[in-house]
Amino acid sequence: MDLNRDIDAYRDAGVSRDAAKTTVSFLSQIAKATYDNNVVEGVGGFGAVYRLNNSPETLLVSSTDGVGTKSRISIALKEYEKLGHDVVNACVNDVLTTGADPLFFLDYIATGKLKTDIIQQVGTGIGDACKISECSLIGGETAEMPGIYLNDDIELVGFSVGVVAENNLLKSSSVDVGDIVLGLASNGVHTNGFSLIRNKLNLDYDLKVLNKYFGELECELGQALTVPHRPYQPLIKQVKRNIKSMAHITGGGIAENLPRALPEELCAAIDLDSWDTPVLFNLLQNLMKVDGHEMFRVFNMGLGMILIANSEGAKNIQSILPEVFVIGEIQERNGNEQVIFV
């Protein structure tokens, strides 16, 4: 599958990949000017890695993320508690990619009008998600900001920190030719691509399709879209000693996230027939009238986390987690792309 085409749909929905890349590049230069000798990995990874007090072995890993415009759909359906799970899992899953164990989480909730019952539901979701991922909810900020947000708006952001011994840090540099690429299924759209969904389905003006029952989903579309971002910590903790590198598949899909888990000289050949694309994505593609190239550039397409291991490690992982499946292998890089779909 050729994923190098010029794609306009997401840009037309108000999300510019080019602007995002330019902004990250600019801000990363500012960030690098502040680095001290304890910064191990800064801007660009799934989680930033910082040496704790010049420790010879203890590293802290941090990540921050938000639920994006998924909140618009969740608010329309009054699915507030699920948003709490979304924000925790979006952050913690990034921390996991380094091999770290999550330690604690903080939240930031901003709204146009503070409604205690809604904040309580969001907070309940955050607390429950933290328990699942075995991290402590140690603080946060709740801001009432009329004039910035409309009354029902919710901006939900999280910040997570984990810890890993330096000799257990997962590194892209450890990946070799012949290593096995493994997939862990997503349980839906997670928290990315909702601006495209809202734009193409005209959800800011007509919400009826969210309440429409689809037989292939066995539920209403809105219920499928608000399934929370899957937590992977309960699975990863069982097998991480067998993992060389890992990618959390979020905005940008497989093509933009998997390269972050690879050394520059290698690529991943991904077999598109190795998993069945969930019916939700097929339905969305038909409803939105976008092509498969755009779908793979925006959504996870059924893979929420990708693991890389040597052949023995891959066998061990599958023996512990039978739900993990082989999706490809690592090869020498012969062109511009680090992900090749075959």
Order of helices and strands: HHEEEHHEHEEEHEEHHEHEHHEHEE
Number of spatially distinct domains: 2
Query: How do the strands line up in the largest sheet?
Result: 1-2-3-6-4-5
CA-CA gap between termini: 7 Å
- Give me the count of strands: 14
CATH topology of the largest domain: Phosphoribosyl-aminoimidazole Synthetase, Chain A, domain 2
Question: What's the Cα radius of gyration?
Answer: 20 Å
CATH architecture classification name of the largest domain: Alpha-Beta Complex
CATH homologous superfamily placement of the largest domain: PurM-like C-terminal domain
Beta fraction: 15-25%
Q: What is the overall silhouette?
A: globular
Please tell me the overall pLDDT.
93
What summary fits the major beta sheet? 6 strands, mixed
Derived from helix and strand composition plus strand pairing, the structural class reads alpha+beta
Account of the 3D structure:
By secondary structure, the protein is of the alpha+beta class. It has 2 domains: 38-169, PurM-like, N-terminal domain (60s Ribosomal Protein L30, Chain: A), CATH 3.30.1330; 173-341, Phosphoribosyl-aminoimidazole Synthetase, Chain A, domain 2, CATH 3.90.650. 33% of the residues lie in helices and 25% in strands. It has helices at residues 9-12, 17-32, 70-77, 80-96, 116-132, 194-200, 221-225, 233-239, 253-257, 279-288, 292-298, 311-320; strands spanning 39-41, 48-51, 58-66, 101-111, 136-144, 154-165, 180-185, 213-214, 219-220, 245-248, 266-270, 303-309, 325-332, 339-341. Strands 1-2-3-6-4-5 form a 6-stranded mixed beta sheet. Strands 10-12-7-13-11-14 form a 6-stranded mixed beta sheet. β2 and β3 form a beta hairpin. α4 runs parallel beside α5 (116-132). The protein starts with 8 loop residues before the first helix and ends with a strand. The model has no long low-confidence stretch (mean pLDDT 93).
